TrEMBL record:
Fungal lipase-type domain segment(s): 288-460
An annotated GO BP: lipid metabolic process
Lineage: Eukaryota, Fungi, Fungi incertae sedis, Mucoromycota, Glomeromycotina
Taxonomic superkingdom: Eukaryota
UniProt keywords, alphabetically: Membrane, Transmembrane, Transmembrane helix
Transmembrane stretches, start-end: 119-140
Protein name: Fungal lipase-type domain-containing protein
InterPro entries the UniProt entry points to: AB_hydrolase_fold, Fungal_lipase-type, Sec_MonoDiacylglyc_Lipase
Alphabetized Pfam families for the sequence: Lipase_3 (PF01764)
Length: 592
């Protein structure tokens, strides 16, 4: 039986020789498959077989995705030469910026008259960003050289310096159990603090994968594609073992939770962001997690700095940040047709669909009930920083086409941390429309922000829904956030949100209309709707929550320091008293 996730294998050229061989992969059970290479120009039976033993079905999509990952532009001999690789990446980024400025003039040469402010911002903003990134590259290399960003402890070991380990584990297990809840459950359907901490934990350990081993596996599988006739099943087994070894740090940290993990997609890059999947054989949920920006990875900063937007209507809606969009989807219709729509996002969804079917069938057999009486598998999406932006896009895709998940699972909440803005006013409006189709669905994208974290304020945009009607499509600052923001504070202040996060009420609590005086700052990208909504109620907290966990932390400014995942954990924990005591806001306050 042909494996579903290897459809159109000829297009992806997996284990094939160009114009000479075709490959078909068959599976007789969940742990055996065969790669068969046939010569089109001969009728002989001289077939090349590569058998895949002991590779579970859930791990195969990652191998397929790795085969589809684009080759580096640099020769291997130059990849490890200091400053060469980031310099080439910077040059590529600079060329893109230059092309954007030239095309802006060619296609809208009257912009200097018709849109003078936007024209000025475009020709100041992009060159300035390129210069800043040049110096950022030098700073990141210096930090990496001095090893100031290192921390050899596991996530739980580090976090236990902030919260006692027994208490931390209890909170995380409570959050994991909440992922099992049925959508119609009477248990709290709104924001869940323990669940948020658990998803933050999963988003954090995504940074623990050994990227060097993934690159090693990629090089091996690339050689197999070039010389398929001289390769055997042992070669593919070696690739598989290397990929599993790269995930060892992640699996070691989740084994106490009876969780399993596999990588799903490299997102068209190597050593950068990627997407993985967490699940448990004993529970009824799958969590799709996207890895965020590694602080000293210059290539990932370039992805963040690709401020140009691209037309996203082929897979989403509106216009979306080009750097984020290109990680998940083809950036134009030609590539979409060329890849037969088998982009990273499609492969991720297929893998989740396949695993959810397996989990649901096991639950049916275990409970000895009919399939129709077996609860659907809950699907959650999460990520931090760049991973949060990718998670937002993936969540938007699932909102637009919920049927692509199949009949065995149901989309639940998305929870992202430190996510930057990802789309224009049209994207944000359509996203909100899909989230609000039914008040009973309880599908919410929770966008968590830690106090003064700078990343949620970039790319610089208006970020005020009241300005959507005035924003023109081509404006460089036409960026708006999606989802329900909840801001947590480092001084113990009650969290701020546009919704009542202390009950099941989904009604918006912003009652005022018109543009307030302070909101005029949003014209210049200097305003967030919650900036002037900070509550006056504070709670006391354990001083250990402010403990620094890495050497460089005390040297960083607050708006950079608050971007770290453990600072998010501390801010969440400082608010626990408000959730446990269910304190009600009294008086004329219109925000919680």
């Amino acid at each position: 039986m042909t494996l579903e996730f290897l459809e159109k294998i000829d297009t992806e050229k997996i284990f094939t020789k160009k114009d000479k061989h075709k490959a078909d992969i068959f599976s007789s059970n969940d742990k055996t498959s065969v790669v068969e290479d046939k010569d089109n120009n001969s009728e002989s039976s001289n077939d090349v077989l590569i058998q895949i033993f002991d590779i579970s079905k859930v791990d195969r999509p990652h191998i397929v995705d790795l085969c589809s990952t684009k080759k580096s532009v640099l020769p291997r001999a130059l990849e490890n030469v200091p400053l060469i690789s980031p310099s080439i990446n910077y040059l590529s980024y600079f060329i893109q910026v230059l092309q954007h400025l030239i095309l802006t003039i060619i296609f809208d040469w009257t912009a200097i008259i018709t849109h003078p402010v936007n024209f000025l911002l475009t020709f100041v903003f992009f060159p300035t960003s390129a210069i800043i990134l040049f110096f950022l590259e030098i700073i990141l290399r210096f930090i990496s050289f001095l090893n100031l960003d290192s921390n050899n402890e596991t996530v739980l070991q580090s976090w236990s310096k902030l919260i006692p380990l027994t208490e931390l584990l209890a909170n995380l297990r409570s959050g994991m159990e909440s992922l099992d809840q049925h959508p119609t459950s009477d248990i709290h359907k709104g924001f869940n603090l323990d669940r948020t901490q658990f998803l933050l934990f999963l988003s954090t350990i995504m940074y623990e994968r050994n990227e060097k081993q993934v690159i090693k596996a990629y090089r091996m599988i690339s050689k197999m594609k070039k010389d398929i006739n001289n390769k055997s099943d042992e070669d593919l087994q070696t690739v598989y073992k290397i990929l599993k070894e790269s995930e060892k740090n992640i699996r070691d940290q989740i084994k106490d939770f009876d969780l399993q993990f596999t990588s799903l997609s490299e997102l068209n890059t190597l050593g950068g962001p990627y997407v993985g999947m967490f699940w448990s054989e004993e529970r009824n949920f799958i969590t799709i997690a996207c890895k965020g920006t590694t602080p000293t990875n210059f290539s990932e900063w370039l992805t963040n700095a690709s401020f140009q937007r691209t037309d996203a209507r082929a897979f989403l809606f509106g216009e979306v940040h080009q750097g984020f969009y290109s990680q998940l989807f083809p950036i134009n219709d030609y590539e979409s047709a060329k890849l037969d729509r088998n982009c990273p996002a499609t492969r991720i969804i297929k893998a989740v669909n396949q695993k959810s079917e397996e989990i649901r069938n096991k639950n049916m057999e275990k409970n000895n009930i009919k399939l129709k009486d077996t609860p659907l598998v809950n699907i959650y999406v999460t990520g931090h920083s760049l991973g949060g932006a990718l998670a937002n896009l993936l969540y938007g895709r699932l909102l637009k086409y919920p049927r692509c998940l199949g009949e065995h699972c149901i989309l639940r909440d998305g929870t992202t941390f430190a996510s930057p803005s990802i789309g224009d006013s049209d994207f944000a409006a359509e996203f909100s429309s899909l989230c609000n189709r039914s008040i009973e669905e309880y599908k919410t994208l929770w966008r968590i922000v830690c106090d003064s974290d700078i990343v949620p304020r970039v790319p610089i945009g208006h970020n005020n829904p009241k300005l959507r009607r005035y924003t023109q499509k081509i404006h460089i600052m036409n960026y708006f956030h999606v989802g329900d923001e909840i801001r947590f504070y480092q001084d113990g202040t009650r969290p701020s949100s546009m919704r009542d996060i202390f009950s099941d009420n989904k009604e918006l609590l912003f009652l005022e209309h018109g543009l307030g005086w302070n909101e005029w700052k949003s014209l210049f990208g200097l305003y967030d709707p919650l900036d002037d909504k900070k509550h006056h109620i504070k709670s006391s907290f354990d001083p250990r929550y402010n403990t620094s966990l890495i050497p460089i932390e005390r040297l960083l400014l607050p708006f950079i320091r608050n971007h770290m995942t453990h600072r998010y954990l501390a801010a969440l924990e400082k608010s626990r008293k408000f959730f446990n005591n269910n304190i009600v806001v009294k008086g004329g306050d219109n925000i919680v």
